[in-house]
C-alpha cells in the first residue's frame, strides 16, 4: 500500500425488524408490540443496549413487573450483567419445548426452572422423571414420588412415603385393551368385545354394592370406577369353556377356546411383581375414595399438600418396565387432564407437566405399538386443548426429531441448547418463524449451558447463558477417564446383581 493510500473500513449489519417499542400507549408506559408501526430512517445511527438498560428493555419485552414474581433463565450472552426474564404466564400457557444434545445443559435448565416454580406459594407441577435424574432437587416446595416397584409391594400403600400405586381400574378402555389384548390374534375382536362387556358389568356391580346410585346411571367403561378383576377373569373363563345344548347333545359354545390367550395375559400380568403398582396395591387402592386421595396428592396445588408444601411433584418412573412405560406415563398425564377438564371453570388451578425424555413416550411414530398409540393420543389432546383447561406442557428431549410433530407444533416457546444432529436442527428450524430462520445457524456452536430462546414468553429471540440451579440433577454423565485413573475397587457389583434379581433400583 502506497503512502498516499488510505485504508477504509466499512461495517455492515443485516437486521430484521420484528416490533416497535412505544414510550406511552393508552396510558401505559414502555409498551412493546410485535408490529411495525414505525421504521428507522435510512442511514440512521444504531446503538447496542447493555447492562441495566438491556435488563430493563427485555423486562418490558417479556412483560415482567419489577416487583412481581419473575421467571429468569440467567443472563444474556451479549451482556452477562443483564438478567434474562421470561413471561411465566405465557411460558406455561402456550406450552414450551426444551431441547439439546447430551451434555449441553438441558437438565440443568429444567432444574433451574423447577426451582423457581417451587418457590411460588401455590405452585402446581408434575415432573415425569424417567431415570431418577431430578432426585437431587430438594426444597420446601418439592416432593419426590416413585412408581412402586417390586421392593415396595410388601410395605403397604404409603403415599406419604412416596410410593405411588396406579390401580388397573384407572386405565381407560383403549389403554386396557392395549395391555391385555394381542391385536395380532385372530380372535382379538371377540376378546375386546367380551372383555369390555365383563368390565362394564363388574363396575356396575361395584357401584350397586356401594350404593352409588348417582354414578350408576351415568358411568361408562372409561369412568374411573373400581371393579373386581377376579370376577372379570372368571366370567371370561366361563365363556372360554362353555358347552351349550345342541341337536345331538352338548356342543362347544361360540367362544370355546377363543379366549385362552386373553386369560393367560390377564393372569400373567396380574401376578407379575414388576406390575405390582397396577395389580398388587392392596385393599386401599381398590376402594372408591382412592382416586380422590391420589388426585389430591399428585394434582393438588401447594396449598393442598401437607403443611402447604410440595407444589412441584417429581415422579420417578425408573422401575416401570419399558414396554408399558408410555402407557403409565400417559395414565398420569390423563389423570391430570381429566381432572382439569371435569372441574368447574372458575375453580381450576393450573398444572404444568414437565415431560423429560419425551421421545420415549411421545414418539413421532408409534410403529404399531399399542402403548405408544395410547400415549400419543393423550399428549396430542393435551397439547391441543390443555390451554383452555389450565394444563401446560414442557416437552424436554435430546432428540426433538423423534418427538411427535403434532405436540411440538403446539409448543410456542423454544429453549434450545446445543444441537449437533442435522435432523434435530431441522426440527428446530421448522419451529422458528420464517423471519428468524437464520438463528438456527447458532444451534451447533452454542456453549454448554447456553441456549437460544424464542417464543411468546420472550418476544425477542435471545441467546442466554443459563444460571446454575441450586441442586444439580444427576445428568448421568460419567467421567470415564477420571474414573479409570483411580485405584479404588469398584465394589458395587454384588449390590447391582442383587437389585437386578429383585428388580429394585439401587440407591
Main sheet attributes: strand count, strand direction, barrel closure: 12 strands, mixed
Q: How would you state the average pLDDT, rounded?
A: 87
Strand content: 15-25%
What is the SS-derived class?
A: alpha/beta
**Radius of gyration (Å):** 28 Å
> How many strands appear in the DSSP assignment?
16
Low-confidence stretches: none
Q: Which key phrases capture this entry?
A:
single chain, 507 residues, alpha/beta, twelve-stranded mixed sheet, two-stranded antiparallel sheet, 16 helices
Describe it for me?
Helix content is 34%, strand content 17%. The strands form three sheets. The protein has a twelve-stranded mixed β-sheet with strand order 4-3-16-15-14-5-13-12-6-11-7-8. Strands 1-2 form a two-stranded antiparallel ribbon. Strands 9-10 form a two-stranded antiparallel ribbon. The protein has helices at 51-61, 88-93, 106-119, 173-180, 188-209, 213-216, 229-241, 260-271, 276-279, 290-299, 325-342, 370-389, 405-409, 422-431, 480-484, 493-502; strands at residues 20-25, 28-33, 71-76, 79-86, 96-99, 125-129, 142-147, 163-164, 243-246, 249-252, 312-316, 351-355, 391-397, 413-416, 450-455, 458-466. It is built from 16 helices and 16 strands. Among the domains are: 20-78, no CATH class; 168-280, no CATH class.
Short description:
The protein is α/β, with parallel strands linked by helices and 507 residues long. The chain contains 16 helices and 16 strands.
Summarize the topology.
Layout: E1 20-25, E2 28-33, H1 51-61, E3 71-76, E4 79-86, H2 88-93, E5 96-99, H3 106-119, E6 125-129, E7 142-147, E8 163-164, H4 173-180, H5 188-209, H6 213-216, H7 229-241, E9 243-246, E10 249-252, H8 260-271, H9 276-279, H10 290-299, E11 312-316, H11 325-342, E12 351-355, H12 370-389, E13 391-397, H13 405-409, E14 413-416, H14 422-431, E15 450-455, E16 458-466, H15 480-484, H16 493-502
Parallel strand pairs: 5-13, 5-14, 6-11, 6-12, 7-8, 7-11, 12-13
Antiparallel strand pairs: 1-2, 3-4, 3-16, 9-10, 14-15, 15-16
Helix pairs in contact: 5-7, 7-8, 11-12
